[in-house]
Design a protein that fits this description.
Layout (H helix, E strand, L loop, with lengths): L1 E4 L13 H4 L3 E4 L8 H5 L4 E4 L6 H5 L6 E4 L9 H6 L3 E3 L6 H17 L1 H9 L23 E5 L3 H12 L3 E5 L11 E3 L2 H7 L2 E4 L13 H6 L4 E5 L8 H10 L2 E6 L19 E3 L8 H19 L10
Parallel strand pairs: 1-2, 1-3, 3-4, 4-5, 6-7, 6-9, 7-8, 9-10, 10-11, 11-12
């Protein structure tokens, strides 16, 4: 079997091994693939593995040998699923590999915004503490998470993990979810998005990006939030209107924005969030811990093994 990895660098920049995949066939790994390189690299492939390289109907129509597309991520919008199904191409994804890592990043952002560890470490290096008259020094409000309300939009694997961690911090947890309230663990109260906006000291987004959720955080919904509340987005960039979030930060309506995703990645240098006060943007790294990437590669291999054995798993097109 000819197996082509189209953009393997972000998954494995060199600290992991492709050997388990190489045991399954003739493997060619490209760190990145530009649009004009795609056809030349795919033309003899039986299986393609892609993270962000788009495989559309036009590409598939030129690849009569192609039998399998493995998406090296949970989201699979880079593949035309209808076209793959029509051509009998199996498409799989990698579910739930980064739950712990993303939940960790959620609280990294929350704690950065509330405790300002980077800010105080920088000021200590600059000598502000050394020159202070008292034994301690602070110049920001330092809130305690215990007793605060966290609103969670979406209770999938990551949202549920965030809820569990928040409970350990002593937070009150509310969630907007399709799950029935009777099925939720103790300590999680179900409400609507509108209900979350009014009660949340911290609002964190973990829902899929759909037509109904695109831009769900915008000027109108931001006005309904508590003044000074914190917004966290490790889900999808387009869940928020970035210009409206930047404006809310500038006005003080929003107290902080911690995001690991943006509408355009990499973002344009003039994106208003990059200069907005109390906006803390990390470059889409929540998923990228060594452990999570290792799990992703292991699952990718198992997905392909299962397909080759005639019992595919994690199939997203039936």
């Amino acid at each position: 079997m000819k197996i082509v990895v189209l953009d393997g660098y972000t998954v494995n920049p060199g600290d992991l091994s492709w050997s388990a995949l190489q045991a399954l066939g003739d493997v060619e790994v490209f760190p990145r693939t530009a649009g004009d390189e795609l056809m030349g690299r795919c033309k003899d492939a039986d299986a393609l593995l892609t993270n962000k390289v788009v495989i559309d109907a036009g590409i598939m129509s030129c690849l009569p040998q192609l039998k399998y597309i493995g998406v090296l991520a949970t989201g699979y919008n880079v593949v035309d699923i209808a076209a793959a199904s029509e051509r009998g191409i199996c498409v799989t994804n990698i579910p739930a590999y980064s739950t712990d890592s993303v939940a960790q990043m959620v609280f990294a952002h929350i704690l950065n915004i509330t405790n300002r560890v980077g800010h105080y470490a920088r000021q200590s290096r600059e000598g502000l503490w050394s020159r202070n008259e008292d034994f301690c020094y602070w110049d920001t409000t330092l809130p305690e998470l215990s007793g605060k309300t966290i609103g969670i939009v979406g209770l999938g694997h990551i949202g549920m993990k965030v809820a569990c961690i928040a409970r350990e911090f002593g937070m009150d947890v509310f969630a907007s979810t399709s799950k029935h309230s009777a099925s939720l663990p103790d300590g999680i109260q179900k409400t609507t998005l509108q209900g979350l906006l009014g009660v949340s000291d911290i609002l964190t987004l973990h829902c899929p990006l759909t037509d109904s959720t695109r831009g769900m955080i915008n000027a109108a919904t931001l006005k309904r939030m508590k003044r000074g509340a914190i917004l966290i987005n490790t889900g999808r960039g387009p869940l928020v209107n970035e210009a409206d979030v930047a404006a809310a930060l500038k006005s003080g309506q929003l107290g902080g924005y911690g995001a690991d995703v943006m509408c355009q990645e990499p973002p344009a240098e003039d994106n208003p969030l990059l200069a907005a006060p109390n906006a803390f943007i990390t470059p889409h790294i929540a998923w990228a811990t060594y452990e999570a990437r290792g799990r992703l590669m292991d699952i990718a291999v198992e997905n392909l093994k299962a397909f080759m054995a005639g019992a595919p798993t994690n199939v997203v097109n039936g």
